[in-house]
Backbone:
């Protein structure tokens, strides 16, 4: 655990989820007075047990020097939360856990490097892969942020430590001075626009930490879209930092890119990604390019990085291979992509496979699946679940599909059809949020895996 010492004497914490509780723990461990509040009495009890004073923060208690805000609390849009307004009126800085981490780094017993990874899609896979490559190269790696542990739950740096942090736009919003050593921007597509007000606001939230980069820092930017390319051009005007372009589409200006199953640089092929089950598809090619450059930038040896690639196990719910059923005329493969909560994420999976038995649906995002029309010819049949079923049915139109309504009906239907047709890929890539039928995407993915395992046990398989 990281202790926050000598930075503040009194801090308020609003929102006591994982981030808020770890902030309370870190501040109290450093001797800082904490006044905290959450509408959930059980969460307040946890904070109180850590030594926080439990008190509503409207009005703001006297002597508060900073407000640590939960990332999920509205900061600017659609309207600021009342506690934000109260803090601003009192000229109290509003920050998040990344800002506390930034300040705490100066107190660590050893120097460290920080790699911060953001973007709309691929952040978690890239962060996990970067951590894997660096661990395989002999570094002491701490992985956290929006993946795994809260950043303040990590350990203070020891010799050869690299922090690999996944950051959402919400977290960057609350980190006005956060400045990593290596910053990665993977891609941009419309997301969380209710939080940022517009696409312009969303892009600016991601770009903030790049504007904070210090001389000698590295900016790694995916250039597979016009917005991203414009940001790369902006970064390249700063001669004090190192700027590296990457691509999942063999974009000619990229230094490292994905092409026909290979990770390549301008000198030629580097790693055969087609042989790594957890890194299939062009989007994972971009993730691999980002992780490769990040590891190199942190000081890892090229040969060590290349050797480490093959052992990457991937992440649950992100194009996760589950197993296979062997039929008389072919094999049915199962892929759990429950983390695909929007159409852009599902596009990557649909682009990777052929003869797809696609299970999709849930709580739809704006635009639905209209943007996925270019991939409909890859779909042998779709099985629609959740609140989006009827509207997705209209979009699919003549593409073969069944309104299954629930996952427990969709899985056996897809298996039966795939086996009858001589095999294929049963792909669970919802393109929707989970909240209409499941608590989160993890539980949704776990339910899919359980249903698949039932089918494997019943029909026989290569697991």
Residues:
């Amino acid at each position: 655990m990281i202790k926050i010492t000598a930075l503040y004497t009194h801090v308020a914490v609003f929102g006591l989820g994982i981030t808020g509780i770890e902030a309370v723990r870190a501040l109290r461990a450093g001797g800082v007075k904490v006044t905290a509040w959450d509408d959930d009495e059980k969460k307040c009890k946890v904070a109180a047990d850590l030594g926080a004073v439990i008190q509503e923060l409207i009005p703001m208690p006297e002597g508060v020097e900073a407000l640590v805000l939960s990332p999920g609390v509205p900061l600017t849009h659609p309207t600021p939360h009342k506690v934000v307004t109260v803090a601003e009126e009192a000229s109290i800085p509003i920050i998040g856990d990344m800002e506390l981490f930034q300040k705490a780094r100066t107190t660590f017993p050893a120097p460290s490097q920080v790699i911060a990874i953001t973007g709309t899609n691929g952040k978690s896979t890239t962060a996990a892969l970067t951590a894997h490559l660096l661990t395989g190269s002999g570094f002491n790696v701490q992985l956290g942020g929006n993946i795994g542990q809260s950043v303040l739950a990590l350990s203070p740096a020891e010799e050869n430590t690299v922090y690999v942090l996944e950051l959402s736009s919400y977290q960057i919003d609350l980190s006005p001075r956060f400045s990593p050593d290596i910053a990665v921007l993977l891609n941009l597509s419309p997301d969380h626009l209710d939080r940022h007000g517009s696409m312009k606001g969303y892009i600016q939230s991601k770009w903030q930490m790049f504007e904070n980069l210090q001389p000698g820092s590295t900016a790694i930017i995916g250039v597979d879209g016009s917005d991203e390319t414009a940001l790369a051009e902006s970064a390249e005007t700063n001669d004090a930092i190192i700027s590296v372009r990457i691509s999942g589409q063999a974009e000619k200006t990229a230094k490292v890119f994905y092409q026909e199953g290979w990770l390549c640089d301008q000198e030629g092929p580097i790693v055969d990604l087609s042989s790594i089950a957890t890194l299939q598809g062009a989007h994972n090619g971009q993730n691999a390019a980002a992780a490769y450059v990040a590891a190199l930038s942190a000081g890892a040896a090229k040969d060590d990085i290349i050797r480490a690639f093959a052992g990457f196990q991937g992440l649950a719910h992100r194009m996760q291979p589950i197993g296979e059923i062997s039929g008389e005329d072919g094999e049915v493969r199962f892929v759990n992509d429950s983390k695909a909560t929007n159409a852009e994420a599902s596009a990557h999976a649909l682009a990777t496979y052929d003869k797809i038995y696609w299970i999709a649906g849930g709580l739809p995002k704006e635009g639905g699946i209209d943007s996925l029309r270019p991939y409909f010819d890859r779909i042998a049949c779709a099985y629609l679940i959740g609140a989006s079923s009827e509207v997705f049915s209209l979009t699919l139109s003549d593409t073969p599909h069944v309104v299954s309504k629930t996952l427990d009906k969709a899985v056996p239907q897809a298996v039966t059809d795939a086996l009858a047709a001589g095999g294929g890929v049963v792909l669970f890539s919802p393109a929707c949020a989970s909240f209409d039928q499941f608590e989160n995407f993890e539980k949704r993915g776990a339910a899919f895996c359980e249903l698949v395992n039932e089918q494997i046990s019943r029909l026989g398989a290569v697991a």
Q: What stands out?
A: The chain has three domains: 10-95, 99-309, 320-459. Residues 412 and 454 are 9 Å apart (CA to CA). DSSP finds 15 helices and 22 strands in the chain.
